[in-house]
Amino acid sequence: MQRIFFCAPFVTSILMTLLTLPVFAQTASVDPAVLVAQKQRVDVIKAVSPSVVAIFGGTGEGGGSGVLVTPDGYALTNFHVVAGAGNFMKCGLNDGRLYDAVIVSIDPTGDVALIKLLGRTDFPVAKLGNSDTVQVGDWAYAMGNPFLLATDFQPTITYGIVSGVHRYQYPAGTFLEYTDCIQVDSSINPGNSGGPLFNDRGELIGINGRGSFEKRGRVNSGAGYAISINQIKHFWDHLKSGRIVDHAALGATVSTGFDSTIDVAEILEESDAYRKGLRLGDEIVSFAGRPIRSVNQFKNILGIYPAGWTLPLVYRREEQKTTIYVRLQALHRASELQEQAGQKKLLPEKSPQPGDEKQPRMPSPHAKPAPTPPPEKYKHLYVPKTGFANYYFNQQQQDRLLQALNESSNFSDRKGTWTLTGKQIDGGDFTLTLADKGIGFEIGNDIFLQSLETGILVDEPPGTGGLLAALHHFRLLFSGQAERFTDFYYLGSERLDGKNELVDVLVATQTGTISRWYFNKSDLSLRGFDFYLTENSEVCSIRFENFQTLNGQKFPGELEILYGNQPVMKLKIEQVKLETLENSK
Amino acid sequence: MKENRVKHVFVCLCLIGAVLAGPLTAKASSQSTIKYALPRLVKIFGAGGVKNLYAYSTGFLVSPEGHIATVWSPVLDTDKLSVVLHDGRKFEAEVLGAEPHLDLAIIKLKSERELNLPYFDIREKVIAGPGTRILGFSNMFRVATGDEPVSVLHGVIEARTDLPRRRGAFELSYSGDVYVVDAITNNPGAAGGAILTYNGKLLGMIGKQVRNAKTNTWVNYSLPIDVLSKSIEQIITGKFESSENQKKPDTHAPERYRPVDFGLMMVPDVLYRTPAYIDSVLPGSLVAKAGLQPDDLIVFVNDELIKSCKTLNAELGKLESGDLLRLVVRRDNQLVSIELPVPPENK
Q1: Distances, alpha carbon A475 to alpha carbons A182, A397, A415, A579, B251, in Å
Q2: DSSP state string for B31-77
């Protein structure tokens, strides 16, 4: 009696398993574990399929795949899918409906593009996973529209294992470099490009985009590659900026030295790495917190971060280890990027060898569609501008941050001369005068001047990196005169000083000088800015502290000034006189 | 009674646990197999790099001293053969011996020190049938360099069969059994890799890329370890009758047959070691019927390496009437193997 009673739960559980899978109930010999695993697969596929996108060019020709990641319609795909598809696309979901979509940003180096599906605010989305925890042997689902088979937009699912992690695949030319990518034996074919790679929990771990093909023609040959989702996370805000996004260079190359160390082989003297102390022959110990044991590893790490980010680098010289924070420079010139973006280039994979005429002909999902006029309803969502994939989205981000700044610190009625007086901490009194004609700085017995009429901006006071010229940018932004900058755009996000919180970045340029403005991502408070006299100058950093309220508007109470990350001075502002334009005259 | 009840609860929990843990353990075993296998696979870099000849291949360790089984290929045809282990350690290596009929070569790492490397036990001759799940390990497409592990594929054995039933279709010299798998294991650089069962038993060595000339399709196959293991062991222990170690032709050796007796006209023997190229083939002769052609290079006679026209003469001279003559020739970087009966001696 006891026996029967206590075995009951077990028997019931078996029965339940069998009942929930009626199709297989007859084959009682099937290992229950197999049925459980199968149900798991079916459930995962059901859960994630709605987020998979079939992408077609504006005319419905060509295409590839994508995956929705936000409910308002942002979807990831490959650059090589949208290149040539036009600024507006048609996207099919597994609900059988076709949606309009507009291009947002492109990353030609990383082969990533962001598009936005339109017409809904409740799109089904994929949950982002952590690609750094992916292991060789993990199951992986590739989903998408290979060979453009699905006319009802139901994604095709290919199931395989992870064959390798942290793989490096050389760029085609100087673009489309796959760094730190995931290698799978899940079948990746033409048309799968841009589609999602899911782990066995249905989390998005990568974007499929490439394969090793060689002589068997351009169909799966057992080695597909997916861009890691963690790389895309680093680029996420950059991708929302509407820009043509660039990858990074260190300004130094590395090679394998004696004892298999990875040493600096070449270094540019104008690079930030050189300024921070890195020299020829130094051994790279770690980069971005990851140990470096091969040249590929170094390239893998460099490839997953946007240009302009600051990353920790540890080097060894004569047994002495040193940690520096290096700001990465752009990998490409602006003109190279634009050329790449404008060039309607197709898949970079190695073309079949000559003499392969006998290959079965495959449909070409990457056929170039002819450009079509944008849908009337969404025409306003595309704004062309040099250097941008779609300037509309940059404007949106600029507006968001400027609005936040205006809400707390709106001095747009004070476009006249500003006079700030106070004390230098551990020093004498100072008076700062900010006007359109020039900037004056009186501190102790010294007087420094920066004329704004000659057009020549200098390092004044010497050894600050151009503090006075920097403060001119400060006055322009705070008094609501952003339109006076030559160039003003939203960049994306990065870690403040390479180690602090994530900040949104606005970039302003005027007569060759550049300022980068940092807004805390969570509360949108302005943390300060960095200033560069020229592209390759050492940085003058100004950080805001102790905001004071002035007529209901917030003004920084303290300015901390650093040059090349070294503190120079701290100014405590005691009195502020901000004149209106009329007063100044 | 109470004790009994506890026992039943325990048993039930165990059973339920087993049901739930099923898929997890399946995964865990493949993951532990991958962890076990990867340090036993090596990346081989050698000759080649032009046109369709790849300068890289794969191998697997079969002894703690650094013996590596790999495919017999032009990659090994160099003085600067280098092998990179899973942890990035790089060694020079030398070819210890080869068994061309099995597409097999054994190379050995050069090292002053004792290596004590992880290896596959090839004496464990595991055989598997169709339906067995396998993992394939190879450095296909040379994806891995330095300390990066080789690529892993998953699949199922479709058949254990012999490919030459369709001889002529497949450009392959090996004529024994192979495992045909549904994973795309046979890619550039993958030859010499290994296939294992999910629970970590070595099943075979991934073969060269072989194309069916008629259908332009490629077959994914591995040479079974039970076929290879005897030769591997013999080459390692030095008991293998490797023609590499053959002394100069014995002057007192019998000279029962000459090349012309089979219809072979060799190039003039003008050098100390003239390569055994066929100059012409007598029409209607035995070798002509077997398909040999001018410019074929004779590399093996009955498993003996033919280094020159002299060794060819010596080997042919040793034959006796009624023997089976097996010739391996190299033609356009392919090995072609033929067999013919030795005719009665022509006194």
Answers
A1: 47, 21, 8, 12, 101
A2: HHHHHHHGGGEEEEE-S--STT--SEEEEEE-STT-EEEEE-SGGG-
2.50.20, 2.40.50, 1.25.40, 2.60.40: CATH of A394-584 = 2.50.20
Upstream peptide bond of A371 is cis (omega within 30 degrees of 0): no
**Helix, strand, coil share of chain B (percent; to 5):** 25, 30, 45
Helix (H) or strand (E) run with residue A581 in it: helix A581-584
Residue A161 half-sphere exposure, CB side, CA atoms within 13 Å?
23
Q: What is the pLDDT of residue A173?
A: 72
CB-CB under 8 Å, A223 with B140: yes
- Residue B183 located in a structural domain: yes
- The reply to whether residue B151 touches residue A223, judged by beta carbons under 8 angstroms, is yes
Q: Mean of the per-residue pLDDT values for chain A?
A: 88
More confident residue, A478 or A86: A478
Residue A480 pLDDT > 80: yes
| Nearest CB to B146 within list A13, A14, A294 | A294
Q: How far is CA B175 from the centre of its chain?
A: 12
B206 in contact with A, Cβ within 8 Å: no
Measured at the alpha carbon of residue A199, what is the angle toward residues A194 and A204, in degrees to the nearest 5?
A: 45
| Contact yes or no for A294 and B184 at CB 8 A | no
A260 catalytic residue (yes or no): no
Within chain A, all domains assigned CATH 2.50.20 are found at 394-584
Q: B52: which chain A residues are within 8 Å (Cβ-Cβ)? A: 215, 353
Task: Classify the complex by whether its ipTM is higher than 0.95, answering yes or no.
Answer: no
Rounded distance, CA A307 to CA B57, Å? 37
> Which one of A107, A111, A180, A459 is the catalytic residue?
A111
CB contact residues (below 8 A), chain B span 59-118, against chain A: 88, 90
Does residue B249 sit in the same domain as residue B222?
no
Q: What is the predicted pLDDT for the residue at A206?
A: 98
Domain A248-322: give its CATH superfamily: PDZ domain (2.30.42.10)
* CB contact at 8 A, B151 and B144: yes
Segment holding A330, helix H or strand E: strand A329-330
Residue B142: in which H helix or E strand, if any?
none
Which of B203, B223, B240 terminates a domain? The answer is B240
- Judgement on whether residues B189 and B323 belong to the same structural domain of the protein: no
Give the global pTM: 0.80
pLDDT in tens, B288-333: 888 899 999 999 888 888 888 888 988 888 888 888 888 999 988 8
Bridge partner list, A198: A141, A204
Contact A185 B15 (CB under 8 A): no
**Residue A353: pLDDT above 80?**
no
Chain length of chain A: 585
Domain with CATH 2.40.10.10 in chain A: 128-233
What pLDDT digit, counting tens, does each position of A37-76 carry?
A: 999 999 999 999 999 999 998 776 678 999 999 999 999 9
The number of distinct structural domains making up chain B is 2
The structure tokens listed for A50 are 């709605």
Shortest CA gap A70–chain B (Å): 31
CATH number at residue B134: 2.40.10.120
Fold classified for A128-233: Thrombin, subunit H (2.40.10)
Beta bridge partners of B92: B82
